[in-house]
Amino acid sequence: MADDALTRIAAALERLAPAPLAAPDFDAAQAFVWHVEPDRLVPVARVNRVDISLLVGVDRVRDILLDNTRQFARGLPANNALLWGARGMGKSSLVKAVHAAVAAEGHPIKLVELQREDIPSVGRLLAHLRETENRFVLFCDDLSFSHDDQHYKSLKAVLDGGVEGRPDNAVFYATSNRRHLMPRDMIENERHSAINPAEAVEEKVSLSDRFGLWLGFHPCTQDDYLAMIRGYCDAFAIDIDDATLRAEAIEWQATRGARSGRVAWQYVTDLAGRRGVGIAG
Q1: Staple 210 to which of 38, 134, 159, 166, CB 3.0 to 4.6 Å?
Q2: Cα–chain center distance at 100
């Protein structure tokens, strides 16, 4: 009976204080996903991404992010980056495509994706990555905070580094539909209801100021939309004449009530299915 009690106590202590994360084989993959409970880095055998050459209408931000990532991969100073703006315009696709392009140049750079709800664990992740020779782009997609969300405090450990400082081998890229990472109506509500309106929102609004790069994404033109589709069709050998493509693509856009890179890809997926052509998603 005593042995059983000791076993249960040991199991309970293990749950409260799990064993340290075992170092993964970083040579096993180019990308990893961070999970918690228990902490672990899971390799991704095949990353869901498109080639950087297929991203149309984002030339300026593409070049800025590519240069920043190359600097980082070479061991030079580089900034954290916030990619913000219109939905479906390729923010997360650009992060993944830039990582692939820089890794293909022979740099030991890895992509680590973490979910917004796991940001409080980022200190543990950084402590683990700090001990390796690889360089890491930490990537959080669709990052935003509500007025009572305290997760943003943990994010400062990545952006400012705290006492230890951010590891030299890690940089943080995030995407968001919001430039200041919180809804405008929540910012205004706090300003109107607080005793000191300026201080009430300064801490959260200034979080976005801690990103060295702000890269804005805006709704695409019809010409860019059609160019995206033509680029996909050429890349995947989908045979369609320009007149038919234009008519179908504009009708598809009208039924969605929007025009974006995501809508362009959805049309190409439908077109490829109708034409019996396989595509790499």
Answers
A1: 159
A2: 13
Give the separation between CA 48 and CA 55, rounded to whole angstroms: 14
Report residue 270: phi and psi, to 5°. -65, -45
pTM above 0.85, yes or no: no
Tokens 């006492």 correspond to what residue? 163
| Structure-block tokens of residue 136 | 């890491």
d(CA 66, CA 100): 10
The reported pLDDT for the residue numbered 79 is 94
Judged on CB neighbours under 10 Å (0-12, 13-18, 19+), 2 is: exposed
Structure tokens at 130: 């700090």
* Structure confidence by residue, pLDDT tens digits, 32-53: 999 998 899 999 989 999 999 9
Q: What is d(CA 182, CA 205) in angstroms, rounded to the nearest whole number?
A: 7
**Could you say which residues of the chain have pLDDT below 50?**
17, 187, 192, 195
> Could you read off the pLDDT of 70-82 as tens digits, one per residue?
999 999 999 999 9
Q: Is residue 38 reached through a cis peptide bond, with omega within 30 degrees of 0 on the bond before it?
A: yes
CA distance 197 to 75: 42
Supply 207's token pair. Answer: 């979080």
| Residue-wise burial string across 5-43, b where 16 or more C-beta atoms lie within 10 A, e elsewhere | eeeeeeeeeeeeeeeeeeeeebeebbbbbbeeeebebee
